[in-house]
Specification:
- With about 850 residues, the protein is α+β, with helices and mostly antiparallel strands.
- It has four domains: about 1-40 and about 110-225, Calcium-transporting ATPase, cytoplasmic transduction domain A; about 235-300 and about 645-855, Up-down Bundle (Calcium-transporting ATPase, transmembrane domain), CATH 1.20.1110; about 305-330 and about 500-630, HAD superfamily/HAD-like (Rossmann fold); about 335-495, Calcium-transporting ATPase, cytoplasmic domain N.
- It contains 31 helices and 24 strands.
- A hairpin with a 2-residue loop joins strand 15 and strand 16.
- The longest helix has about 40 residues, at about 635-675.
- The radius of gyration is 34 Å and the shape is elongated.
Length: about 850
Amino acid sequence: MFHTKSAEETLLDLECSIGGLSSSEVASRSEHYGKNYLEEAKKQTLLEIFVEQFKSPVIYILLIAAAISFAIKEFSDAGFIMAALAMNAVVGTYQEYTASERADALRKVIKTYVNALRDGNRVEILSEDITVGDIVFFESGVKVPADIRLLETYELQVNESLLTGESIEVNKNCNYISSNVDEPLGERQNMLYGGSLVTKGRAIGVVSAIASQTEVGKIASLLASSKETKPPLILRMEKFSINISKMIGIIAILIIMLGIYREIPLKEIFFLTVALVVSAIPEGLPVAITVALSVASGVMSRRNVIVRKLSAIEGLGSCTLIASDKTGTMTQNRLSVEYFVTKERAYNPDEHIDEHVVLVAILCNESTFHKKEGESVFIGDQVDVALLRYTLALDESLFEKYKTLKPLNQIPYEPVNKYSAASYEIDGKKVHFIKGSPEVILGKCELGEDDTKYILKQVDEWAAKGFRNIALAYKLSDEKEIAKEGYIYLGFAAITDPLREGVKEAVKTAEEAGIEVVMVTGDHPNTAFYIAKELGIAISKDEVIDGLEISRWHERGAYKEEIAHKRVFARVSPEQKQLIVKTFQDLGHFVAVTGDGVNDAPALKFANIGISMGKSGTDVARESSDLILTDDAFSSIVNGIEEGRVAYDNIRKVIHLLISTSFAEITLILLSMLFFIPIPLLPVQILWLNLVANGFQDMALGVEKAEPGVLKRKARDTKEPIFNKAMLSRVVVGGFYMGACAFALFYTLLEMGYSEDMARNITLLLMVLFENVSTFNSRSENNSIFKINHFQNKFLWISVIAAQGAHIISMYNPFMQSLLSISPVSIEMWTTLLFIALTLVAVMEAEKFFRKRFSS
């Protein structure tokens, strides 16, 4: 057990050195140990998914009905019920299998990386490519990819809750050696375990175990066997289906009572009730919604948004406010030093400057670079990389001279501290270097009050031009610990970060969609305001607030009203970012938050929708988020919002189709029983109608493209139920009209002397036509059917034509004629029925007109 051994013994046992592995060693070990990833839980086979389709109370009712049918020798009814069940199972299997395949594809897109020593160079590699003996580096925000014996640590804290269940961060110490082989994992201070998260500090370690040999690997079977929690939307829809089922149950009891009162044979009542219940209950709704969300997630992935939780798709579409980070999201995060500003003047990047500036930029710097195929490859924080590029351009000889120098002491950069520091022995003298936020650095320098005010004024002026400013200072000292004060101020690097292409247009689009955009950043208020003004987020400095002012307002308890009118939040702490999110939520907003660092994790987790950066984001940020932007661009958030709204619209379209057609069938049967005429549709005909009218059309509606103006309308109220007043109006009007027309037709045909079989045949054809027309009416809740591009969804046309064609073929097929009691009709009758069905368009257009008129 490596926690009982020293660092030297561990390296010896693993047959490696602190200098890292060579390429040949990596190849040999990779072949021996394999890739560093855990085998995924066994996927369900197609057969297992198919069997799952029969695990439903509604299906149980049908199976019982089929068994009774066989028992009483009603083989045609039994056979058709089984055929309908098989068809439903095939459709459900296809939907779930394709959704699973799409989810697997998305998981493969999300990659994590780690810095390791290979061939003497520090390189960035995929976590799955590390092997036993690799020397790896850790900093705040990195997810530990394997089990690691620590070799060097600096103020290292780790969250090991995945393994220990303890959410409090634990301190790590590379010099700790245990005497107990069976020491609990949480007490092994010299070890890091795969799956844990570095929350503070820095470390270097050697990989001691990968994949299934790690502690996480040993419990992977338990994790794999645990079931995923269903998304809230799916749970709500299942509850909705249960409520519908209860209502149908009441109607079924009413039908049975009316049937007994009318002295209809019990066998007929039984089949009629079962058929009507099965056709009326939208048992396929949860699967159809999952498909709609899965399709949306696939589209979003192509638009640079990776979905970690399906429920987040609907949530993003409901977003009313985006609290966005600035660096990397609105800007390119491609920093470069444009000037170095001293108290006396501003230096261009190519001008000679005090050597101490170069030393601070080189030695108080955690980034590295090496040459690869003639190109310079930089790894590290973007600020550090920008300073390193600056110094290399000034004097690369100094970098070569001091790059191997080891620090005596070091304070890595942490967002909470807003500075980093390091001490070295140079030419026999101990020198302390420090860099960071000008306000923090000036507080540690020996400067008079007038000089401090003047420099802060300089900082403000450069920040107002959009520059990010990083102050540098140094001190000669024999102190063992890094000095806290007494530094000599050198100046500040004025760093630019250009705006991302398209972000200004994206902000405008978001605002047109009724979504407010605020900027939350750790940058200087002037820098943040400059960028916000460029983007149209803020127009006045009155809309800017910094962390200090937030603290004052929070202490007074009057911060909510003030924050509501602010659009730029600068110099904020992680706790304040979370407070800002909570405040906007309390004000009634559905908040989406973007972030990339450890400091963003609390806000990402607390937000309604957390959005992390795929390129620059830390593992902690990704683990805390619902969505990941693969390109880190703000415009991709707006793309995601659009797809979220489209997914929600499509869910409502599916619901409208299923419920309105069910309501029409119930209306038809109830009216016939209330008016004491024969039942208009046989049980087997109702089952057939349910199959051809809804079998594939609901899937087609689930993949509808965006309606015009989807980003022009206001975000919906997050408390509004899916089955709202508009949905109720459409279902009642459309469903009742279809049912009443079919009843009127059936009644008229009987009065005209048609036989019951022929009247049913014609009525069934009308219902098939009605429900296919209803499919097109379901394509838009508010837009006129005449303003919709009807050739945009080819799958919808295919499904409708196939359904209508199947019914027409059945009318001419002897077997189906016998099974369904149907027969061909004349072209004149078919044309008349089509005309009646098309009147549904006028009714639903009138419903839209009056609903919009009275709701406005």
